[in-house]
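@channel sequence for tomorrow's demo:
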Amino acid sequence: MFQTIQFNTPLIIFGMDTVNQIGKHAKNLGAGRVLIVADPGFVKGEGLERVASSLKGESLSFEIFDRIEPEPSTDVVKGAYEVARKGNFDVFIGVGGGSTMDVTKMASALMTNTGSPHDFFGVEKVKTRGKPTIMVPTTSGTGAEVTKHAIFLDTKDNVKKAVASVNILPDVALVDPMLAASCPPHVTASTGLDAFIHAAEPFLSKMANPLTDAIALQAIRIITRWLGPAVADGGNLEARYYMSLGSLMAGLVLHNSGTSLVHAIAYPIGGEYHTSHGVTLCAILVACFEYIVMAKQEKFAQLAEAMGESVDGLSQREAAHRALDAIDYLVRSVGLPTNLRELGTVKEESRIKRWAVDAHKEQRLLSRCARQLSVEDIEKIIERAFEKE
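structure tokens (generated this afternoon):
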């Protein structure tokens, strides 16, 4: 079978101290006035001074919107848009984690598309590109700087939903590992596992292709090798460098092949419990992969090898299950939950059924899954995610 491959990416600038180039790239995009959407913590640190200095060096004026919350709701997007609309900004810069970058994407899109954030949930519903955007991640995990996705809590029904449109793909991704150096251990762990899943889940999906497979396996090698050192010592710049690179590569895989089952189940659970995205994913990860391993044994064996597991002399089935053990160990090694009980969720039959129904509605994601799943199948996976030791 001859596969047709499309591979999209923003302009990528990666490396130490590349944030000093942000003024030049903003000016290249036609900036006169710039809106910086930033995490509150970033505004208090030295990073903002570097961004501001670079913009001032190109004679660009700017304002800051920092009313960002973890796992943002559609109300946060509306607030950012109101500031953007009144200021009539030319270029939008998102500096922070995935939440900040997602808000930036949508605030930009609302400048040129009529409607509220709720109107754009789904696939390719943003019909016109927004104002130019530059994304500057300060964590190594979400990959949002190179994706066409933005995730928000829909305040109408308290469920996380996705906007997926090529018209919100950033213009520039500027990835400076130095900006992640102050990231605390727990955030480093949860975002790092988020990145791992962004590489591994698309690698196992129906939408994988030779380009994304090659990048995914390398991202998995890098993250498995460097996540522990980055969590153990945030000042380890070599670890920060490679985690930023691994996260960027995983983001490219996510954007071009897409996530699936793990994310579909995580949305209703995270929406109800308001747990961070990476932590929610970890709590259901192995339970989800156990359910699809029979459909992708060869790829699970490759995953095990990329994670540094010795698979010589093992059958394909044994090697595939070695990957599940390695993933479980990786999550535990950085102190994250491997089941829903550790996440603090309550096991109730009515809740499990509701989550399964909501997850099953995510056909945009589940259509990529290697195994066809009914609502009852998803219930079994969630049950398993409670029972896992």
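heads up for whoever presents: The longest helix spans residues 210-232.
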